[in-house]
Protein backbone atom coordinates (compact mmCIF):
# COMPACT_ATOMS: atom_id res chain seq x y z
CA UNK A 1 0.00 0.00 0.00
CA UNK A 2 2.84 2.37 0.88
CA UNK A 3 4.54 1.66 -2.46
CA UNK A 4 1.28 2.39 -4.32
CA UNK A 5 0.78 5.68 -2.48
CA UNK A 6 4.37 6.70 -3.17
CA UNK A 7 3.95 5.91 -6.87
CA UNK A 8 0.70 7.90 -7.07
CA UNK A 9 2.28 10.86 -5.28
CA UNK A 10 5.33 10.84 -7.58
CA UNK A 11 3.13 10.64 -10.68
CA UNK A 12 0.96 13.56 -9.51
CA UNK A 13 4.03 15.58 -8.53
CA UNK A 14 5.75 14.90 -11.86
CA UNK A 15 2.63 15.71 -13.89
CA UNK A 16 1.94 18.89 -11.95
CA UNK A 17 5.45 20.21 -12.46
CA UNK A 18 5.32 19.06 -16.09
CA UNK A 19 2.20 21.19 -16.51
CA UNK A 20 4.17 24.22 -15.34
CA UNK A 21 6.83 23.34 -17.90
CA UNK A 22 4.05 23.10 -20.53
CA UNK A 23 2.96 26.66 -19.74
CA UNK A 24 6.52 27.89 -20.23
CA UNK A 25 6.79 25.84 -23.44
CA UNK A 26 3.56 27.25 -24.88
CA UNK A 27 4.62 30.81 -24.08
CA UNK A 28 7.99 30.27 -25.75
CA UNK A 29 6.46 28.41 -28.71
CA UNK A 30 3.98 31.13 -29.65
CA UNK A 31 5.99 34.20 -28.65
CA UNK A 32 9.40 33.27 -30.09
CA UNK A 33 9.22 30.37 -32.57
CA UNK A 34 7.21 32.23 -35.26
CA UNK A 35 9.98 34.86 -35.41
CA UNK A 36 13.17 32.89 -34.74
CA UNK A 37 13.26 29.08 -34.68
CA UNK A 38 16.96 29.09 -33.89
CA UNK A 39 16.46 31.12 -30.70
CA UNK A 40 13.47 28.93 -29.82
CA UNK A 41 15.65 25.82 -30.02
CA UNK A 42 18.35 27.47 -27.96
CA UNK A 43 15.84 28.29 -25.24
CA UNK A 44 14.26 24.85 -25.39
CA UNK A 45 17.48 22.98 -25.75
CA UNK A 46 20.67 24.27 -24.25
CA UNK A 47 22.39 26.99 -22.23
CA UNK A 48 21.95 30.67 -23.13
CA UNK A 49 22.94 33.56 -20.88
CA UNK A 50 20.72 36.56 -20.10
CA UNK A 51 17.78 35.00 -21.91
CA UNK A 52 14.29 34.02 -21.02
CA UNK A 53 15.56 30.83 -19.39
CA UNK A 54 17.72 32.82 -17.01
CA UNK A 55 14.63 34.76 -15.95
CA UNK A 56 12.46 31.69 -15.67
CA UNK A 57 14.78 29.37 -13.79
CA UNK A 58 17.23 31.74 -12.12
CA UNK A 59 20.02 29.47 -13.34
CA UNK A 60 21.71 28.41 -16.57
CA UNK A 61 19.39 25.44 -17.13
CA UNK A 62 17.20 25.33 -20.19
CA UNK A 63 13.60 24.24 -20.37
CA UNK A 64 14.34 20.68 -21.50
CA UNK A 65 17.24 20.31 -19.08
CA UNK A 66 15.00 21.80 -16.40
CA UNK A 67 12.36 19.12 -17.04
CA UNK A 68 15.00 16.40 -16.69
CA UNK A 69 16.05 17.88 -13.36
CA UNK A 70 12.41 17.97 -12.23
CA UNK A 71 11.87 14.36 -13.29
CA UNK A 72 15.10 13.35 -11.55
CA UNK A 73 13.65 14.64 -8.29
CA UNK A 74 10.84 12.07 -8.61
CA UNK A 75 13.14 9.09 -9.26
CA UNK A 76 15.98 7.48 -7.29
CA UNK A 77 19.39 9.01 -7.96
CA UNK A 78 20.98 7.60 -11.09
CA UNK A 79 24.08 5.45 -10.75
CA UNK A 80 25.89 4.87 -14.06
CA UNK A 81 29.04 3.01 -15.02
CA UNK A 82 30.29 4.34 -18.36
CA UNK A 83 32.91 2.55 -20.43
CA UNK A 84 34.27 2.73 -23.96
CA UNK A 85 33.56 5.78 -26.12
CA UNK A 86 31.10 8.05 -24.33
CA UNK A 87 30.06 11.40 -25.91
CA UNK A 88 31.16 14.41 -23.88
CA UNK A 89 31.07 17.40 -26.27
CA UNK A 90 27.64 19.13 -26.20
CA UNK A 91 28.66 21.45 -29.04
CA UNK A 92 28.80 18.67 -31.67
CA UNK A 93 25.81 16.88 -33.26
CA UNK A 94 25.77 13.09 -32.89
CA UNK A 95 23.47 10.12 -33.48
CA UNK A 96 23.10 7.58 -30.67
CA UNK A 97 22.07 4.00 -31.51
CA UNK A 98 21.05 1.70 -28.67
CA UNK A 99 19.50 -1.64 -27.81
CA UNK A 100 15.97 -1.45 -26.38
CA UNK A 101 15.35 -3.72 -23.38
CA UNK A 102 12.74 -1.84 -21.37
CA UNK A 103 10.64 1.33 -21.29
CA UNK A 104 13.18 3.19 -19.14
CA UNK A 105 16.13 2.93 -21.58
CA UNK A 106 15.61 6.50 -22.78
CA UNK A 107 15.80 7.80 -19.22
CA UNK A 108 19.31 6.46 -18.64
CA UNK A 109 20.51 7.83 -21.98
CA UNK A 110 19.15 11.19 -20.86
CA UNK A 111 21.11 10.80 -17.62
CA UNK A 112 24.26 9.98 -19.58
CA UNK A 113 23.74 13.21 -21.54
CA UNK A 114 23.02 15.04 -18.29
CA UNK A 115 26.44 14.00 -16.99
CA UNK A 116 27.95 15.75 -20.05
CA UNK A 117 25.81 18.90 -19.60
CA UNK A 118 23.95 17.94 -22.77
CA UNK A 119 20.47 16.99 -21.52
CA UNK A 120 19.04 19.83 -23.60
CA UNK A 121 20.61 18.45 -26.79
CA UNK A 122 18.69 15.16 -26.72
CA UNK A 123 16.11 14.51 -29.44
CA UNK A 124 14.45 11.06 -29.38
CA UNK A 125 12.86 9.21 -32.30
CA UNK A 126 9.43 8.02 -31.10
CA UNK A 127 6.23 6.56 -32.51
CA UNK A 128 3.67 9.24 -33.34
CA UNK A 129 1.00 8.05 -30.88
CA UNK A 130 3.12 9.20 -27.93
CA UNK A 131 2.82 12.89 -28.78
CA UNK A 132 -0.91 12.74 -27.96
CA UNK A 133 -0.31 11.59 -24.38
CA UNK A 134 -1.57 14.46 -22.15
CA UNK A 135 1.06 16.69 -20.52
CA UNK A 136 4.13 14.48 -21.08
CA UNK A 137 3.39 13.93 -24.77
CA UNK A 138 2.67 17.61 -25.26
CA UNK A 139 6.00 18.43 -23.65
CA UNK A 140 7.89 16.05 -25.95
CA UNK A 141 6.18 17.64 -28.93
CA UNK A 142 7.27 21.16 -27.91
CA UNK A 143 10.76 19.84 -27.23
CA UNK A 144 10.68 18.87 -30.93
CA UNK A 145 11.28 15.15 -30.60
CA UNK A 146 11.00 13.27 -33.90
CA UNK A 147 7.65 11.44 -34.13
CA UNK A 148 7.21 8.80 -36.84
CA UNK A 149 4.20 6.87 -38.14
CA UNK A 150 6.47 4.00 -39.22
CA UNK A 151 5.20 4.41 -42.76
CA UNK A 152 8.06 5.28 -45.06
CA UNK A 153 5.82 7.08 -47.58
CA UNK A 154 4.79 9.54 -44.85
CA UNK A 155 7.95 9.64 -42.74
CA UNK A 156 10.43 10.19 -45.58
CA UNK A 157 9.76 13.88 -46.18
CA UNK A 158 9.02 14.52 -42.51
CA UNK A 159 12.46 13.21 -41.48
CA UNK A 160 14.19 15.26 -44.18
CA UNK A 161 12.44 18.47 -43.17
CA UNK A 162 13.06 17.83 -39.47
CA UNK A 163 16.78 17.12 -39.77
CA UNK A 164 17.40 19.91 -42.29
CA UNK A 165 15.73 22.35 -39.92
CA UNK A 166 18.05 21.35 -37.06
CA UNK A 167 21.10 21.56 -39.31
CA UNK A 168 20.04 24.94 -40.72
CA UNK A 169 19.84 26.35 -37.18
CA UNK A 170 23.19 24.73 -36.32
CA UNK A 171 21.59 22.97 -33.35
CA UNK A 172 23.97 20.36 -31.83
CA UNK A 173 21.40 17.56 -31.62
CA UNK A 174 22.04 14.27 -29.85
CA UNK A 175 19.54 12.13 -31.76
CA UNK A 176 18.59 8.92 -29.93
CA UNK A 177 17.40 6.12 -32.20
CA UNK A 178 16.44 2.54 -31.28
CA UNK A 179 16.90 0.50 -34.51
CA UNK A 180 15.03 -2.48 -33.03
CA UNK A 181 11.85 -0.40 -33.16
CA UNK A 182 10.38 -1.76 -29.91
CA UNK A 183 11.32 -3.24 -26.55
CA UNK A 184 12.35 -6.88 -26.54
CA UNK A 185 9.79 -9.64 -25.81
CA UNK A 186 9.80 -13.36 -26.59
CA UNK A 187 7.17 -13.04 -29.30
CA UNK A 188 9.15 -10.30 -31.04
CA UNK A 189 12.36 -12.36 -30.85
CA UNK A 190 10.63 -15.22 -32.69
CA UNK A 191 9.29 -12.88 -35.39
CA UNK A 192 12.70 -11.24 -35.69
CA UNK A 193 14.44 -14.58 -36.17
CA UNK A 194 11.95 -15.69 -38.84
CA UNK A 195 12.44 -12.42 -40.73
CA UNK A 196 16.23 -12.70 -40.41
CA UNK A 197 16.15 -16.23 -41.82
CA UNK A 198 14.16 -15.08 -44.86
CA UNK A 199 16.50 -12.13 -45.44
CA UNK A 200 19.70 -14.10 -44.89
CA UNK A 201 20.64 -11.94 -41.92
CA UNK A 202 21.96 -13.08 -38.50
CA UNK A 203 19.57 -14.38 -35.83
CA UNK A 204 19.86 -13.04 -32.30
CA UNK A 205 18.75 -14.27 -28.87
CA UNK A 206 19.27 -11.23 -26.62
CA UNK A 207 18.45 -8.41 -29.05
CA UNK A 208 16.07 -7.88 -31.96
CA UNK A 209 17.20 -7.61 -35.57
CA UNK A 210 17.80 -3.89 -36.24
CA UNK A 211 15.73 -2.17 -38.91
CA UNK A 212 17.60 -0.41 -41.69
CA UNK A 213 15.22 1.81 -43.67
CA UNK A 214 14.39 4.44 -41.02
CA UNK A 215 18.01 4.97 -40.02
CA UNK A 216 19.04 5.11 -43.69
CA UNK A 217 16.64 8.01 -44.27
CA UNK A 218 18.00 9.82 -41.20
CA UNK A 219 21.61 9.38 -42.32
CA UNK A 220 20.78 10.67 -45.79
CA UNK A 221 19.07 13.71 -44.25
CA UNK A 222 22.09 14.69 -42.11
CA UNK A 223 24.67 14.37 -44.87
CA UNK A 224 25.53 18.08 -44.62
CA UNK A 225 26.43 17.80 -40.91
CA UNK A 226 28.10 14.35 -40.94
CA UNK A 227 27.53 13.68 -37.23
CA UNK A 228 29.52 11.01 -35.44
CA UNK A 229 27.65 7.78 -34.69
CA UNK A 230 27.75 6.29 -31.19
CA UNK A 231 26.69 2.68 -30.72
CA UNK A 232 25.57 2.35 -27.10
CA UNK A 233 24.75 -0.88 -25.24
CA UNK A 234 22.83 -0.75 -21.96
CA UNK A 235 22.97 -3.55 -19.39
CA UNK A 236 21.08 -3.53 -16.09
CA UNK A 237 21.84 -5.05 -12.67
CA UNK A 238 20.95 -8.75 -12.30
CA UNK A 239 20.74 -9.14 -16.10
CA UNK A 240 20.89 -12.84 -16.98
CA UNK A 241 19.37 -12.72 -20.45
CA UNK A 242 15.76 -13.27 -19.38
CA UNK A 243 13.27 -12.04 -21.99
CA UNK A 244 9.68 -11.41 -20.85
CA UNK A 245 6.54 -12.24 -22.80
CA UNK A 246 4.21 -9.47 -23.95
CA UNK A 247 1.77 -10.62 -21.25
CA UNK A 248 4.44 -9.95 -18.59
CA UNK A 249 4.94 -6.43 -19.91
CA UNK A 250 8.08 -4.94 -18.39
CA UNK A 251 8.25 -7.22 -15.36
CA UNK A 252 10.74 -10.08 -15.02
CA UNK A 253 10.73 -13.22 -12.92
CA UNK A 254 14.51 -13.54 -12.57
CA UNK A 255 16.00 -10.22 -13.65
CA UNK A 256 14.00 -8.31 -11.05
CA UNK A 257 16.54 -5.49 -10.69
CA UNK A 258 15.97 -4.23 -14.23
CA UNK A 259 14.16 -0.90 -13.61
CA UNK A 260 10.97 -0.05 -15.48
CA UNK A 261 9.33 3.37 -15.37
CA UNK A 262 6.86 1.89 -12.87
CA UNK A 263 9.60 0.86 -10.43
CA UNK A 264 11.39 4.18 -10.91
CA UNK A 265 8.25 6.09 -9.97
CA UNK A 266 7.81 3.85 -6.94
CA UNK A 267 11.48 4.46 -6.03
CA UNK A 268 11.96 0.69 -5.83
CA UNK A 269 14.75 0.38 -8.41
CA UNK A 270 18.12 -1.11 -7.53
CA UNK A 271 20.89 1.17 -6.29
CA UNK A 272 23.42 -0.83 -8.30
CA UNK A 273 24.95 0.91 -11.34
CA UNK A 274 23.48 0.82 -14.83
CA UNK A 275 26.21 -0.07 -17.33
CA UNK A 276 26.50 1.80 -20.64
CA UNK A 277 29.11 0.77 -23.20
CA UNK A 278 29.85 2.97 -26.20
CA UNK A 279 31.76 2.79 -29.48
CA UNK A 280 32.25 5.74 -31.80
CA UNK A 281 32.15 5.55 -35.61
CA UNK A 282 32.57 8.08 -38.37
CA UNK A 283 29.51 9.04 -40.38
CA UNK A 284 30.85 7.98 -43.79
CA UNK A 285 31.94 4.58 -42.46
CA UNK A 286 28.44 3.85 -41.15
CA UNK A 287 26.62 5.12 -44.21
CA UNK A 288 28.75 3.16 -46.68
CA UNK A 289 27.02 -0.16 -45.88
CA UNK A 290 24.41 0.45 -43.21
CA UNK A 291 22.85 -3.03 -43.10
CA UNK A 292 26.21 -4.72 -42.70
CA UNK A 293 27.18 -2.17 -40.05
CA UNK A 294 24.01 -2.77 -38.02
CA UNK A 295 24.25 -6.56 -38.30
CA UNK A 296 27.89 -6.44 -37.18
CA UNK A 297 27.17 -4.09 -34.28
CA UNK A 298 24.17 -6.07 -33.07
CA UNK A 299 26.22 -9.24 -33.14
CA UNK A 300 28.74 -7.40 -30.96
CA UNK A 301 25.88 -6.34 -28.65
CA UNK A 302 24.82 -9.96 -28.31
CA UNK A 303 28.35 -10.85 -27.21
CA UNK A 304 28.55 -7.88 -24.84
CA UNK A 305 25.27 -8.82 -23.16
CA UNK A 306 26.34 -12.48 -22.88
CA UNK A 307 29.60 -11.40 -21.24
CA UNK A 308 27.70 -9.11 -18.87
CA UNK A 309 25.29 -11.91 -17.91
CA UNK A 310 28.26 -14.11 -16.97
CA UNK A 311 30.59 -11.55 -15.34
CA UNK A 312 28.33 -8.64 -14.30
CA UNK A 313 30.48 -6.23 -16.28
CA UNK A 314 31.45 -5.48 -19.85
CA UNK A 315 34.78 -6.76 -21.23
CA UNK A 316 37.81 -4.46 -21.13
CA UNK A 317 36.08 -2.22 -18.58
CA UNK A 318 39.12 -1.46 -16.39
CA UNK A 319 38.92 2.21 -17.38
CA UNK A 320 35.17 2.45 -16.73
CA UNK A 321 34.08 5.44 -14.67
CA UNK A 322 31.24 5.60 -12.19
CA UNK A 323 28.88 8.58 -12.30
CA UNK A 324 26.25 9.27 -9.63
CA UNK A 325 23.65 11.87 -10.59
CA UNK A 326 21.51 13.01 -7.66
CA UNK A 327 18.59 15.34 -8.18
CA UNK A 328 19.01 19.03 -7.50
CA UNK A 329 17.24 19.85 -4.24
CA UNK A 330 16.53 23.44 -5.25
CA UNK A 331 15.41 22.93 -8.85
CA UNK A 332 11.69 22.57 -8.06
CA UNK A 333 11.80 25.75 -5.98
CA UNK A 334 13.47 27.56 -8.89
CA UNK A 335 10.75 26.31 -11.24
CA UNK A 336 7.99 27.61 -8.98
CA UNK A 337 9.74 30.96 -8.52
CA UNK A 338 10.17 31.22 -12.29
CA UNK A 339 6.53 30.29 -12.90
CA UNK A 340 5.37 32.85 -10.33
CA UNK A 341 7.52 35.53 -11.97
CA UNK A 342 6.23 34.63 -15.43
CA UNK A 343 2.53 34.50 -14.54
CA UNK A 344 2.26 37.08 -11.73
CA UNK A 345 5.22 39.44 -11.42
CA UNK A 346 5.88 40.03 -15.13
CA UNK A 347 2.24 40.84 -16.06
CA UNK A 348 1.93 43.09 -12.98
CA UNK A 349 5.12 45.00 -13.79
CA UNK A 350 4.16 45.27 -17.46
CA UNK A 351 0.65 46.54 -16.78
CA UNK A 352 1.97 48.98 -14.17
CA UNK A 353 4.86 50.26 -16.26
CA UNK A 354 3.21 50.82 -19.64
CA UNK A 355 0.51 53.30 -18.52
CA UNK A 356 3.09 55.29 -16.52
CA UNK A 357 5.52 55.33 -19.42
CA UNK A 358 2.75 56.37 -21.85
CA UNK A 359 1.73 59.22 -19.56
CA UNK A 360 5.37 60.28 -19.24
CA UNK A 361 5.88 60.32 -23.03
CA UNK A 362 2.74 62.43 -23.58
CA UNK A 363 3.79 64.84 -20.84
CA UNK A 364 7.31 65.18 -22.25
CA UNK A 365 5.97 65.68 -25.77
CA UNK A 366 3.74 68.55 -24.67
CA UNK A 367 6.52 70.03 -22.55
CA UNK A 368 9.04 69.81 -25.39
CA UNK A 369 6.79 71.85 -27.69
CA UNK A 370 7.45 74.86 -25.49
CA UNK A 371 10.90 74.04 -24.10
CA UNK A 372 12.40 72.57 -27.31
CA UNK A 373 14.40 69.99 -25.29
CA UNK A 374 14.45 66.23 -25.49
CA UNK A 375 12.86 65.07 -22.26
CA UNK A 376 11.74 61.57 -23.18
CA UNK A 377 13.34 59.51 -20.44
CA UNK A 378 14.28 56.26 -22.20
CA UNK A 379 15.22 57.76 -25.59
CA UNK A 380 17.31 60.33 -23.76
CA UNK A 381 19.14 57.66 -21.77
CA UNK A 382 19.78 55.57 -24.89
CA UNK A 383 21.06 58.63 -26.73
CA UNK A 384 23.33 59.43 -23.79
CA UNK A 385 24.73 55.88 -23.75
CA UNK A 386 25.40 55.94 -27.49
CA UNK A 387 27.18 59.29 -27.17
CA UNK A 388 29.41 58.05 -24.34
Automatic annotation (TrEMBL):
<dbReference type="GO" id="GO:0016746">
    <property type="term" value="F:acyltransferase activity"/>
</dbReference>
<feature type="transmembrane region" description="Helical">
    <location>
        <begin position="12"/>
        <end position="32"/>
    </location>
</feature>
<keyword id="KW-0012">Acyltransferase</keyword>
<feature type="transmembrane region" description="Helical">
    <location>
        <begin position="38"/>
        <end position="59"/>
    </location>
</feature>
<protein>
    <submittedName>
        <fullName>1acylsnglycerol3phosphate acyltransferase putative</fullName>
    </submittedName>
</protein>
<keyword id="KW-0808">Transferase</keyword>
<feature type="domain" description="Phospholipid/glycerol acyltransferase">
    <location>
        <begin position="94"/>
        <end position="216"/>
    </location>
</feature>
<dbReference type="GO" id="GO:0012505">
    <property type="term" value="C:endomembrane system"/>
</dbReference>
<dbReference type="Pfam" id="PF01553">
    <property type="entry name" value="Acyltransferase"/>
</dbReference>
<keyword id="KW-1133">Transmembrane helix</keyword>
<keyword id="KW-0812">Transmembrane</keyword>
<dbReference type="InterPro" id="IPR002123">
    <property type="entry name" value="Plipid/glycerol_acylTrfase"/>
</dbReference>
<keyword id="KW-0472">Membrane</keyword>
<feature type="transmembrane region" description="Helical">
    <location>
        <begin position="331"/>
        <end position="354"/>
    </location>
</feature>
